[in-house]
Amino acid sequence: MKRKYEILMLLLFAVLLGFSCSQTDGDSSGALPERKDIAEEYTWNLNDLYSGLEAWEAEFQSVENSIPELKTYQGKLDHSGDIILECLKKRDELASRIDKLYVYAHLAMDSDTRNPEFQSRANRIASLEVRFHEMVSYIVPELQTIAGKTLERYIENTPGLDMYGHYFHDLNRSRSHILNPDQERLLAMTGDMARTPGRVHEMLTVTDIRFPKVKNEEGKWVELSPGRYYQMLYSEDPDVRRGAFEGMYGTYEKFQNVNAAAFDGMLKADIFYARARNFESTLHASLFSDNIPTDVYDNLIESVHNNLEPLRKYMELRKQVLGVDNLHLYDTSVPIVPEAGEKVPYEEARQKVLEALHPLGEDYLKLAKEGLYGRWIDVYETRGKTNGAYSWGTYDAPHPYILMNYNDTRDNMFTLAHELGHTIHSMLTNKNQPYIYSDYSLFVAEVASTMNEALLLDHLLKTTEDPNIRLALMDQWADNIVGTLYTQVLFAEFEKTIHEKAEAGIPITAETLNETYMAILKSYYGDSLVLDDLYKLTWGRIGHFYRSFYVYVYATSISASTYLSGKILDGNSQAVSDYLDMLKAGGSDYPINLLKNAGVDMSKPDAVNYTLQKFGEIVDEMSRAL
Ligand SMILES: [Zn+2]
Predict the structure, then answer these.
(1) Domain range enclosing 153
(2) Is 275 inside a domain boundary?
């Protein structure tokens, strides 16, 4: 399928070690460059998907015309295994073609969200997809009315049908949450409507919102943008950091009511679907698809609460090194080792990433090289381009694409390694699995990406002699744990709490959101930081909240990859091949099982505790070295 793997662009994801705020300035007024100003080799080549717009239009027509063909199987699926197989193959083929149309349209739009033609194409394919889902909505409920024994016999007697074995098992598991065909059809029709809150949030935060001009390090007034906000948090100048924070959050404060209404709409949609499908709660509904027990979620929050001391100690260490009595949250990204601010141009980044991936073997390296040098990547920030970074692809395509907003920082280099991890995971899955299992879970996806980050860090530590840079790298790792483990669990707890409030019928207003967020933020940092009041608005900035109960996966993943990269770097060749087998397996099994086969059991707290313990040790080591 076509899941997008986004990088975290979040509060406290403090590994961005650059500080130049004028890096991508196109002119003296501080405006961002236009797309046409970027050299072609640093833009992605969407022609690898379609030769051009006419080809996209022709394919759109062809798919649109084919959708009604799926009606011919309705009411007949229990007749024979052959009919089931034919229907599923036809459905998957069309789904795959729609994915490709969809991804192409959205990649184009993301490169310039202001372009109305791109927007209209993206809307058309989204509507076509809804029509497709309406059309195929009879399939699952019909399959579920076939008795288990009959289906087993069909699988036995129909060559090729056994490919769908895991899929049927999963359907059986969902039986009690799937409604009758008419109700399913009705639910499918709500899809477009239910996406509106997310669209409102996106249009507000990406397209409509204009941030004020703030002073950069050279005292020049520049227009604040999400990309620049992150850069400015790394400034050595406390006034630049405060200015960026106040400019960013002050703007969100002005829009807090419309933003809260969108958030409330999202919560109501979640509750609607959870109740419509007979789930105990929205959390149960969300974790169900990956077959993850809610205990995993609750235990994760508990494990982190039991290990808050190292986090506060780390903040104390920062306070000491910076020589300040009061440390604000917006002061926690600035490198505490000055050499950490060195720039990493893109050329150097892709070279180092490539070197770092050697432990994963020749086949993996070959794909990495193709990706880094074959225009799969849209590198630089331009006006109107979507912020953040992601890897996004589709089954029936030569390769996925990577969107970056590369700014010559070491953090950007790590982001590149991260997204490349997703991209190669997809390549290996698509090569080894049928379409039906090409959509692997985020629960394994973020292991594939953070594994590459772990290998890059290790490579840099091994090839760097300068004690200051080594210290900076340790600090970077520690920051990464703060951003990926502590902060994501903080977010996860916020999501759980706010969903519970909404489910209990408590009205969700800007005030509810602000209060809930602030209370949880305080419980994590205690008195170790000054938590400025405007931070209560953080919920309004985080697009990830529009995919409920998903950010916790970053915390479980970094724990799993920290644990597994330890084995791989020890030279354990079995660990490498087990790991690559997991990448090749895609979604052909449940994620907890896939990870178990790769060597880590996430139903136990071991990997999380291992990682937090390592964090505590690194903080102690840095403390001694500083
Ligand atoms: Zn990712």
Answers:
(1) 39-189
(2) no
